[in-house]
Structure formats: C-alpha cells, structure tokens
Amino acid sequence: MKVLIIEDEEQAAKRMESLVRELLPHAEVLGVLDTVKKSVEWFKQGHLLDLVLMDIQLADGISFQIFEQCDVKAPVIFTTAYDAYALKAFKVNSIDYILKPIDKEELRQAFAKLSTNTSPDTQQMLSSIEQ
Per residue in 62-77, pLDDT tens? Predict the structure, then answer.
C-alpha cells in the first residue's frame, strides 16, 4: 500500500508516519507534504497511491484547494484539529475524518474502512492490522 501524508506540523507528520508504519507495516510512505502548492504539484505528476492522510489547515491554505486544482483519485482520511469541515470532507474522496490528537485506535478503524474500497492485495494487508 502506498500512502501520502499531507501535514504541515512537523511533530504531527512524524507521529502520523510512525502510526502508519506501526499499523500498516508493509505500507510505503511516499512522502510528507506541507503545503497546498506542493500537494497540487505532486498529484499533477500522476503518482499512483492507495491512501492520502490529509490535514485540513496547511501552511499556505485549506487542503480543499487541492481538490479544486487537481484530481485526487485515492481515498482520503482527513486529520484535523477542527470539526467545522467534516461535511465538506465527505464531498470529496474522504473515508474518515479524525480529530487531532490522532488516536491510534481511531486510525486503525479508519484503515479498516479501506477494505471495502481497495484491491484484494490491499485488503489482505489491511486485514492483518485487525488481527
């Protein structure tokens, strides 16, 4: 599974990457981006990925601006300190909306939701985190 983290707070990004590696040990974190601009450039390059973990408030704007500028085909789990954007999040490829600080069990449950939207290989890997 290929994962992209979009988070502008360094400590939050490190924690998220650590949780991904713990809960999805076979996952590959393709990168950590901290701005709308870098994220749009990354998606426009056509990278293939299976999941995006995305903060809403970024260094240069709101992450919803990414969806206005490019096509994000991968499922998204939003991570944020704000609950005000929950409805808007589900109008894009969102499969969950987790409030910070990120709870490991909540993230595990969000990953489990992926199993209905992914390939058999990814489903097999995700089922291992439930055990």
Answer: 999 999 999 999 999 9
Confidence (pLDDT) at 123: 44
pTM of the model: 0.83
Structure token pair of residue 128: 């291992």
Residues 6+ apart with CB under 8 A from 100: 12, 79, 80, 81
Token pair, residue 106, equals 């909540």
CA angle 107–29–8, rounded 5-degree value:
75
Q: What gap in Å lies between CA 77 and CA 95, rounded to an integer? A: 6
Tokens of 47: 């990278």
CB 86 within 8 A of CB 97: yes
